[in-house]
Design goal:
By secondary structure, the chain is of the alpha/beta class. The chain has six helices and seven strands; from the N terminus they run E-E-E-H-E-H-E-H-E-H-E-H-H. It has a five-stranded mixed beta sheet. A two-stranded antiparallel ribbon has the order 6-7. A hairpin with a 4-residue loop joins strand 2 and strand 3.
């Protein structure tokens, strides 16, 4: 049976999800490479992180993966250097994935990943940012938007984590000493969402129904 690999790529952590073609989750993990000794330049550090991910990815070669989905990097930062770095690293990882697994990756935006994975999150907003209710005329013009049923300042990553945690109760999450979720959990759930979303977008999975998962 063919398998689907989902990746959420950032320069610090890469979230990884692995699914069976029928939607069962096989693995949900991450890699956060710490390069020692510290390279002299950021570019050299990126190269070494790509090498570290490549070593991890080689264990997926025999798993019959025929689809890889990578979340597109967010480009809304005002820091041009940050945007450029994300694009470089994402491109390096994408090319390496195609070479190691012999699969050309698909890409999906963060918005679409969440909207297609969890369509129930698409709702019409009933209040503005000040908490004031819209009148009937305004409501009639409003279209469903992602997280429309939540407060404007809601922690979106936590909501996605909660959705995944409910679907996959067998997952053991990582916590800090203060018993708060580690940031790496959110990279994992983003990787989960992007793989789930593209299969739902293509009509191969029904994302309104739970699929029993089996982690190996």
């Amino acid at each position: 049976m063919a398998r689907i690999l989902g990746l959420d790529v950032s320069t610090k952590t890469i979230g990884i999800s692995l699914f069976e073609e029928d939607g069962r989750l096989l693995e949900l993990t991450h890699i956060t490479p710490k390069i020692k000794p510290r390279p002299e330049t950021k570019l050299e550090e990126m190269f070494k992180k790509v090498d570290a991910f490549e070593r991890l990815l080689t264990r997926y070669i025999e798993l019959d993966i025929d689809k890889v989905v990578i979340e597109e990097p967010l480009l809304n930062s005002n820091n041009v250097y940050t945007v450029g770095t994300l694009l470089k690293f994402n491109g390096m990882i994408s090319k390496m994935v195609s070479e190691v697994l012999n699969v050309i990756p698909d890409f999906i935006s963060s918005y679409d990943a969440r909207a297609y994975s969890f369509p129930e999150l698409m709702q019409v907003r009933t209040h503005n940012k000040k908490g004031e209710p819209y009148n009937d005329k305004q409501l009639a013009k409003n279209k469903p938007v992602l997280f429309g049923g939540y407060d404007w300042n809601v922690d979106k990553k936590t909501i996605i984590w909660d959705k995944v945690a409910n679907l996959e109760p067998q997952i053991v999450w990582e916590y800090t000493r203060n018993n708060t979720l580690k940031k790496e959990n959110f990279d994992m759930t983003d990787a989960y969402a992007c793989a789930r979303a593209i299969m739902c977008k293509e009509g191969k999975w029904n994302c309104t129904e739970k699929v029993e998962s089996e982690v190996v």
